[in-house]
From TrEMBL:
Gene3D superfamilies linked to this entry: Bira Bifunctional Protein, Domain 2, Ferrodoxin-fold anticodon-binding domain
GO molecular function, one term: phenylalanine-tRNA ligase activity
Residue intervals of the Aminoacyl-transfer RNA synthetases class-II family profile domain: 159-331
Domain of life: Eukaryota
This protein's GO CC annotations: mitochondrial matrix
GO terms of biological process kind: phenylalanyl-tRNA aminoacylation
Keywords: Acetylation, Aminoacyl-tRNA synthetase, ATP-binding, Ligase, Mitochondrion, Nucleotide-binding, Protein biosynthesis, Transit peptide
Name of the protein in its database record: Phenylalanine--tRNA ligase, mitochondrial
Entry similarity comment: Belongs to the class-II aminoacyl-tRNA synthetase family.
Domain FDX-ACB: 341-434
Class of enzymatic activity (EC top level): ligase
Keyword check for ATP-binding: yes
Length: 436
């Protein structure tokens, strides 16, 4: 089964690479070339860097599978919010949006969240762009403004997010996030009868604790509500006596901002990012009488800890040895994943001179390795960098760790993939292989 998938992946990558080759390295603009995502056609342009391998993850919707660890964890968090936050009518306060398209505009992913034009998170080397105006969302926060504009005061949104990143057992270019926001009117904050003399806003200064337009009381109220809500969630997930700590942080869309960390098996695990929503964002949504908080939580890392899943690639496995272990689980039942067997790793290094004339980012190489090698790639690490004093050329050496999840790879199989990676890197990225 997996063999077939691997082969399919290979032939797909071959076709893709041949196309690429024709256009010579860096995705030249070709008016006729379009790209299909979620049933819509997009014209390729100089921003297009999404690969068929990455696009093959769109629509898998692991978070919607009830018996998948990500579906279980999502439902656990959703159920927690449903039961803890009930409105006056007896209905849950938070609405859930888990089917929003992962294709978003640059405006949604960045501009609407006040992410500066020159912010590094926008770089082509960090995101999967479909064209200059669209990308596969890099975070579920991308939906904040559209949801709030549509009149929703409290929501949870869950979905797949895409980021170009390093390759190891806890990083995969596709993962899942749950984002939430909650807005409050003056009435909801001050429960007493007469609130006419109370102001949510002032024309003040920004301090570490508050935004310039918030009164200190407003800011401290929101911070306390946010922290209480998330501490409750952390205790639900990790147990009543979980050791947790707050760390100050910075996000362009919140102030003040925090991260919540949980002590787990002796290590502080970063659980989520959060903060008081920037009032400017709410104003841009047409909201002038409410304030709010928001948070975003990554599901894979959390699920890896809760279910003892050792490798992030396993979430994508269709192997029954993996999936059956969660078949009978409920969102609250404690499941401990048992590794069926671990097949040996195979390590191969690759050194090359970087191209002189074109820009090169290690993420270009990581994507190419994934495109050619598929999921037998366990880890890629830049282990050595060297600048030649005379030629001024730079050399990179990468260590590639191969491991199949269901069988032992032979040296011949690994060498074949390794050689393919070398020749494709030469052709597509313009590197020059070095014999070590
Ligand atoms: N979007 C952030 C990330 O991906 C996480 C985050 C931080 C989400 C603060 C939020 C927030 O909604 O308020 O790292």
């Amino acid at each position: 089964m997996l063999e077939k998938r691997l082969l399919a992946c290979f032939s797909l990558s071959r076709r893709f690479l041949v196309k690429y080759q024709r256009r010579k390295f860096s995705v030249a603009i070709n008016e006729k070339e379009t790209i299909d995502v979620c049933g819509k056609k997009y014209q390729r342009d100089e921003w297009t860097n999404v690969t068929p391998k990455i696009l093959s993850h769109v629509g898998r919707n692991l978070h919607l599978q009830e018996k998948h660890p990500l579906g279980l964890l999502k439902n656990r968090i959703v159920n927690h919010f449903y039961s803890q936050y009930i409105g006056r009518t007896g209905n849950p306060i938070f609405s859930v949006f888990d089917r929003l398209s992962p294709v978003v505009t640059v405006e949604q992913n960045f501009d609407s969240l006040l992410i500066p034009k020159n912010h590094i998170s926008r770089l082509k080397s960090d995101c999967y762009y479909i064209d200059s105006g669209h990308l596969l969302r890099a975070h579920t926060t991308a939906h904040q403004v559209e949801l709030i504009k549509s009149g929703i005061d409290s929501y949870l949104t869950v979905g797949d997010v895409y980021r170009r990143d390093e390759i190891d057992s806890s990083h995969y270019p596709v993962f899942h996030q749950l984002d939430a926001a909650r807005l409050y009117s003056k009435h909801e904050i001050y429960k007493q009868e007469d609130i006419s003399g109370i102001n949510l806003f002032e024309n003040g200064d920004e301090t570490a604790e508050k935004q310039e337009v918030h009164t200190l009381d407003t800011a401290l109220f929101l911070q306390a509500e946010l922290k209480a809500c998330l501490e409750k969630l952390a205790r639900n997930l990790f147990g009543e006596d979980a050791e947790i700590r707050w760390v100050e942080s910075v996000f362009p869309f919140t102030h003040p901002s925090f991260e919540l960390e949980v002590l787990y098996n002796g290590n502080w695990l970063e659980l989520l990012g959060c903060g008081v929503m920037k009032q400017e964002i709410l104003a841009n949504c047409g909201i002038t009488d409410k304030v709010g908080w928001a948070f975003g939580i990554g599901l894979e890392r959390l699920a890896m800890r809760l279910y003892q899943i050792p490798d992030i690639r396993l979430f994508w496995s269709q192997d029954t040895g993996f999936l059956n272990q969660f078949r009978k689980a409920t969102p609250t039942s404690p499941v401990t994943y048992k590794t069926i067997s671990v097949f040996p790793q195979c390590t191969n290094d690759m050194s090359f001179w970087l191209p002189e004339s074109t820009a090169f980012s290690p993420n270009d190489f990581y994507d190419l390795v994934r495109q050619v090698g598929g999921d037998v790639i366990e880890q890629v690490t830049l282990i050595d960098e060297f600048n030649h004093p005379k030629t001024k050329l730079t050399s990179h050496c990468y260590r590639i760790v191969y491991r199949h999840m269901q069988k032992t790879l032979t040296k011949t199989e690994v060498n074949r993939v390794h050689e393919d990676i070398g020749s494709e890197a030469t052709r597509l990225l313009g590197v020059k292989l070095r014999v070590v």
